[in-house]
Amino acid sequence: MLDYVPGEKGEEAKCICRAHPCWDDAGATHSCSKNVETPFLVYSYDLDGKLSCGCNNEPYIVPVYIAKELCPGHHCGDNPEHPILDYNAEEKKCLCRAHPCHDDNGVKHMCPDGKFPLLQYGEDEKDGEVVKKCLCKAKLDPVLGAKVAHYLIVRAAQLVDGLCVVQGHSAFLAKFVCFLHVRRSDHTSLPTYYNWRIWKTSFDSRRRSSRGSAGCAANLRSALSAGNIFLADMMDDVASSYQAFLIDSGALYVDERVSTDENGDEGAAPVVDYTRHMMAASVAPGSSVEVARICGLACSGCGGPAVQTPLGRCNHAFAALGPALTPWRLSGGIAQEDTVRALRAVSSSSSSSSVNNNNNNNNNHNNFNNFSGGSGGGVLLRLAGGELRGLALPSASNAAGREEQRDKLLDCLASALVPVFQKADLAKLELVVSFSDGPVLPRPTRETSWRGAQGRREDVPPPVFSFCAAGGDAWEIPLPPSLCPEFRPPCRLPAASGDTALGRTGQDEGLEEVAACYIFQLLSGFAELMRYAPHGPKEEALTSDDLPASVGASVVGAWKIPPLGRKRAKSEAFVARCAMLIAEAAL
């Protein structure tokens, strides 16, 4: 945002670029991205200088200096013909005016493109005359803007490493080392803050001895205002155009289409995976994922699906999100019959696991109908009607002690899921969770990518969530193994799988936040793949319409999902924070 800073104590007045004030409202980040009717974030200040943030159906930007210093208590949001708050310096009064681009010599400029909906006014001087300039800009978005900043800095980090290390530009390096020690309150813009975060990560991991001096923070403000830090100076200017380029060009995405199958026939339809920076390292030789990897080398010391990031670290926390839902993305989603197959799979009383006797061959075409699951059992979790319910099939091995242990584990799991469901604002969802101590859907090969070459439903693995799927040797969708370890047996994973995605987060700070963000991202993607809506507890459900009930599933637990109400701002802050964690883990 363009803003104005009056000169104080002999300083010269100047124009600056700043972050939207609602991106840091006493630590909370407001967003309107999920509001279809009112997707644009707006704000005003009351007479006491208190910030109020809201969502509007039309985008308009007011300089903070006008809204807070000159015209507190004024707003023009309810005046569609004159939506711009302005100040008349001669008459010393505030007024609502029409957008100057709505009457540019009789021309009314509009921005119908949803990617660039923000109509922005500016002025240029040409031959001594003022020329109006009306442009369409991208919507101010803290989450997407941060991701753009991340990718810009990753590229700049590689460039600066070459300049500083190879050519010995020590003075240039010193500026960025100095950058590490500045608190967030010292930054002049949100992109500058993310700039600092990335450089801190880079230098902390590579040059622990190269740390700045105590007087760094005091000198940085003047350096930034003078434009000496080129990245900080350019970030706001290029963010809108660069993020549009990344989206339109597909630069952030990987196309995982399969052109031909093993028999030379035409493969699956093109599918775009929007998780390039979270893709697994163990991919088929020569695949598009392998070619697209930035690091180009195997990640030394990263087991399982952890992937080496552009800065050379391992993304343990979120790498599994990339391939976790691939079979159902490529097979057209999840039908209720798939959920029933999953429930039957985890409810089997057999202690051995087989997939149509295909474990001993290298055939990728499995028949998942003839499945005999592990001995740990499992439940179906149904989110509908503001309530989370646990359903289970009767089993001959369900002794009283085992049911009691199952109920304790179910209560623990629900206590972790309910807050995520509330913050994510999910309405309907159905998932099957395995309580087994090992994989119940083992892969017949080590290949990470999945293809349903024959196009049959029985070729698609049942969508089963598991605590013990982190090793990457099973089709189960991995849950954080840090969840509820006291109520379930330890996982029987191969020795090489101990250092896998989410596996090491148990010793890290912020484990609960990381696990909650992983679950949120995973279940949000899973909900988008569902091709049916589960029945709520107060909805009339005929047996023929409710397949889990038709096969004998009964309710074994229920938990209310509190409505968001006034906590919606915290929900938006949670979503934004998760996006930051996932983006930072990919660096």
Map the helices and strands.
Elements: E1 2-5, E2 14-17, E3 40-45, E4 51-56, H1 64-70, E5 84-88, E6 93-97, E7 118-126, E8 129-137, H2 142-167, H3 170-179, H4 190-206, H5 216-225, H6 230-249, E9 254-255, E10 272-273, H7 288-292, E11 307-308, E12 314-315, H8 326-330, H9 336-347, E13 354-355, E14 371-372, E15 378-384, E16 387-392, H10 400-424, E17 429-434, E18 464-466, E19 477-478, H11 511-529, H12 547-550, E20 554-560, H13 568-585
Parallel strand pairs: 17-18, 18-19
Antiparallel strand pairs: 1-2, 3-4, 5-6, 7-8, 9-10, 11-12, 13-14, 15-16, 15-17, 16-20
Helix pairs in contact: 2-4, 2-6, 2-13, 10-11, 11-13
| Distance separating the two termini | 27 Å
Taken together, the total number of domains comes to: 3
> Major sheet, described briefly?
6 strands, mixed
Global morphology: elongated
Contiguous uncertain segments of 5+ residues: 151-230, 252-259, 270-301, 349-375, 445-454, 495-509, 538-544
How many strand units?
20
| C-alpha Rg (nearest Å) | 27 Å
The largest sheet has its strands arranged as 19-18-17-15-16-20
Characterization of the model:
There is one protein chain. The protein is elongated and about 85 Å long. The chain is an alpha+beta fold and 587 residues long. The model is unreliable at 151-230, 252-259, 270-301, 349-375, 445-454, 495-509 and 538-544 (pLDDT under 50). The strands form eight sheets. Strands 19-18-17-15-16-20 form a six-stranded mixed β-sheet, sandwiched between helices. Strands 1-2 form a two-stranded antiparallel sheet. It folds into three domains: 2-128, no CATH class; 142-249, no CATH class; 314-585, no CATH class. Helix content is 30%, strand content 16%. Residues 346-369 have a biased composition (Low complexity).
